[in-house]
Amino acid sequence: MAKDLRVGLIGLGSMGRHHARVIRETPGMDLVAVADPAGDKWGVAGDLEVLPDVDALIAAGLDAAMVAVPTVFHEDTALKLAAAGVHTMVEKPIAADVESGERVAKAFEEAGLVGAVGYVERCNPALLEMRKRIAAGELGKVYQIATRRQSPFPARISDVGVVKDLATHDVDLCAWVAGSDYEAVSAQTAYRSGREHEDMVTVSGRMKNGVLVSNLVNWLTPFKDRTTIVTGETGAFVADTAMGDLTFYRNGEIPLEWSQVAAFRGVSEGEVTRFAFEKREPLRVEQENFRDAILGVREDHVSMREGVQALKVVQAILDSAQAGGELIKL
């Protein structure tokens, strides 16, 4: 019987504490070491010693590691793990800038190790169900993807703005759902909370396969909104990723002859279906994908190369905003 993977976790903050719980709950994974130079604020270490750094973590003898430190430390931490021969998943984004991300991805590729990036939205049950149904042809040709990711400011973030922290999720999931890389983006940002980094962004983009994309992201909305709308030939899928719900609005075939209603609701109405399906915790699915990639069972994880591609789009968004909304081609 195969032994459990010996897993280490560095970063015990607001995300690290959840990773600690999920790693412990994932069959085939054994959390054997944790590290954080700032200590264990959330008390997740249990009977494990809180190690001071990644070097001490590596010394514990690891098969795999989860990196949940602030973005500015991703590159140094990941490169040490690659040099030590440790399969690694890094919380999104892969690094602070494209060049750093390229170095990280290359290190894992050259070492023949599994390198993953924690884009947990790909594991959201509503988006998994949506993508499965799109692949089965239920939407026909995909025309447009629109996302809203709005919420109050999270005190956990201090080193990046809303683009690298939140919009990067939308960049990755839009490319994943569309099945295409970005061709061009245009963006506007705003600084409304007095912080160094942007706290609002609107993005308009186009994929290489012609799918149009729009993203509305901010940290200044007094409620949480996580919505993805994919419009295609036969209607539109609407995913509420905060609740894991998926609804399909089918194009209608029966004309509305009541003109006053038609003016408000469109020229025709079709069926509206809210799907029932299994809803598993996305973070748990993400860890299982990482585990299975290491074991060679399947490759449903987000690769570091995909992480670099998302970072290139994120940088183009920031460059466009800096240039007053100029269209940036990738």
Automatic annotation (TrEMBL):
Bilayer-spanning residue ranges: none
Domain of life the protein comes from: Bacteria
Molecular-function GO terms, alphabetical: nucleotide binding
Domain GFO/IDH/MocA-like oxidoreductase: 128-237
Domain Gfo/Idh/MocA-like oxidoreductase N-terminal: 5-119
InterPro entries listed in its UniProt record: Gfo/Idh/MocA-like_OxRdtase_N, Gfo/Idh/MocA_Oxidoreductases, GFO_IDH_MocA-like_dom, NAD(P)-bd_dom_sf
Classification via Pfam families: GFO_IDH_MocA, GFO_IDH_MocA_C3
Name of the protein this chain belongs to: Dehydrogenase
Organism: Boudabousia marimammalium
Taxonomic lineage: Bacteria, Bacillati, Actinomycetota, Actinomycetes, Actinomycetales
